[in-house]
Design goal:
globular; 6 helices; 25% strand; seven-stranded mixed beta sheet; alpha/beta
Amino acid sequence: MSRIVAGAAGGTPLVNVPGSLTRPTTDRVKEALFSRLDAFDVLAGSRVLDLYAGSGSLGVESASRGADTVDLVEFDAKASAVCQRNADLINSVLGRKAVTVHRSRVESFLERTGEDAQWDVAFLDPPYPLDEQALGAVLEKLGRHLAVGAVVVVERSSRSPEPSWPPAMERFTEKKYGETRLWFAEPASETDVDVDLEAED
């Protein structure tokens, strides 16, 4: 059973999605991931987006560790229901509605969200069958909604290639944990974006 690792609700068990529909982040990987985010000093007071949320484990962990708002995006009915249960759990502990669940396809959510919506941390843990082209298209849409200094974390199989980053985003580090690899990216500098666009012309 997964749990909230640290923060206001540290040690609290989470509800898991039944069956093999989702591939939850292991507690070991989650601890390592959040240790890095703590080192980057990006969580406290942040706006967090958890795409392909599954059980909502990463977003709920963020709320426990001090994120101001968390949006969980999950299309599957069973998984989104589990997201809601875990969101209700952390919201109850915090005494406020920090976590909101959106039952939606990731692409649709990003397309209909106004460009004034900005996030400081974004998690993407897409199903392994999602191909690289589709993932690249989602990253392209996400790039329009990143705040200055934002951190994007993409979780993939260690056998998957590096994601195709859009011009508005650039990788700054990665780390392998057994069968899982985490890719970390940030908004590209305006100079880098201009160079990429000139190259396309």
